[in-house]
Design brief:
Length: about 90
C-alpha cells in the first residue's frame, strides 16, 4: 500500500517539477547574464566563438554551470518542501 501511495505522489509531483524546472531555468539565465555583465566583457562567449580565448569561454561555462546547479537545487528542494507541507510526505 505504501508503494502505491509513493508512486502516486511521484506522478502528481511530476508536473510541478516540470514547471519548477522551467522557472528555475529562466531565473538561472537571468542571474548568469547579470553575473557575466559584472565579471566579463560584453556578452557571454559561446564555445564556438572564434574570437574568444579559451580561458574566457571556460570561465563563462563554469560560472553558468555553477549558477544553474545552485538554482536548480534550491528550486527542487523548495518544491519538495512545499509538497511535504501540503501532503504531509516527501515527494521522492
Amino acid at each position: 500500500m505504501a508503494k502505491s501511495k509513493k508512486r502516486k505522489q511521484k506522478l502528481l509531483y511530476r508536473p510541478v517539477g516540470i514547471l519548477l524546472g522551467m522557472a528555475s531555468g529562466a531565473v538561472a539565465s537571468t542571474l548568469f547574464a547579470k553575473a557575466w555583465a559584472a565579471i566579463g566583457d560584453g556578452d557571454a562567449p559561446d564555445a564556438m566563438d572564434e574570437e574568444r580565448e579559451w580561458k574566457e569561454i571556460l570561465l563563462a561555462a563554469a560560472v553558468q554551470g555553477a549558477i544553474f546547479a545552485v538554482v536548480k537545487a534550491a528550486v527542487d528542494r523548495s518544491g519538495a518542501m512545499g509538497v511535504r507541507r501540503v501532503t504531509g510526505s516527501w515527494p521522492g
